[in-house]
Amino acid sequence: MYFENRRQAGRLLAKELAWLRGQKDVLVLGVPRGGVVVAYEVAKELQAPLDIYIARKIGAPYNPELAIGAVASDGTVVLDHKLIAQSGAAGAYVQQETDRQREEIKRRLAVYRGDRPDPVLEGKTIVLVDDGVATGATVLASLRALRQRKPAQLILAVPVGPPDTIQQLSQEADRVVCLFVPDIFWAVGAFYEVFDQTSDEEVIRLLREKQPPQKTAKG
Fold it and tell me: Across the chain, where does the E strand assignment appear?
């Protein structure tokens, strides 16, 4: 199964989530950048507000694309100690990268959300959307952090992901919707005909079109 682009993937995901359409207290959270494009289509079809949730992977030394852990925007850290040992990452390196990604999260939140307050998550049905998962480290950190915000229901929706990752994430979310779980998995982009870079400007534009109500977060 191949997707034309992120927008088409989002529309297909929305069909699988149609039971949420028009329901009260549904909030769609996109993972920047590419996940926001998918999430926009989901939010539009479900008639739900759209916001963002940011987690950043902690890359291995000399191989930053390999996630040895991840940090979420509320500070939750998930580490893969087996990969850390295999990569030879020292404790000081892991701490330094964690701090660096925390600062990058703060920067991105300021760019994307501006002075808008964090959305209220407690008691909501949260649909976390990305354009796909590979190791799942950043999404895992996001799910664990979101769970601490006491949502009524926590749903993960992604177009594609490998079986072991989807199984792991299914233990963290109340429900996982994944359109394609191939036995042989290379990279998320391999399952898209068009998988171009999403700009900050596009993320900001999509968020403005589907802004959630202006409520101040509690607690």
Answer: 26-30, 50-52, 55-60, 63-72, 77-79, 125-129, 153-160, 175-180
Task: Supply the CATH classification number for the domain 57-111.
Answer: 3.30.1310.20
Q: DSSP class of residue 3?
A: B
The structural domains of the chain, with segments of one domain joined by +, span 6-55+115-209, 57-111
Q: What is the DSSP string of 169-214?
A: HHTTSSEEEEEE--SS---GGGGBS--PPPPHHHHHHHHHHTPPP-
Write down how long the chain is: 219
pLDDT digits (tens, 9 = 90+) for 81-113: 998 999 999 999 999 999 999 999 999 999 998
pLDDT digits (tens, 9 = 90+) for 9-68: 999 999 999 999 989 999 999 999 999 999 999 999 999 999 999 988 899 998 887 888
What does pTM read for this prediction?
0.87
Q: How crowded is residue 15: how many other Cβ atoms within 10 Å of its Cβ?
A: 10
Q: What is the pLDDT of residues 128-164, one digit of tens each?
A: 999 999 988 889 989 988 998 999 999 999 999 999 9
Specify burial of residue 207 (Cβ count, 10 A radius: 0-12, 13-18, 19+): buried
Residues 33 and 203 sit within 8 Å (Cβ to Cβ): yes
Per CATH, the number for 6-55+115-209 is: 3.40.50.2020
Q: How far apart are the first and last CA of the chain?
A: 43
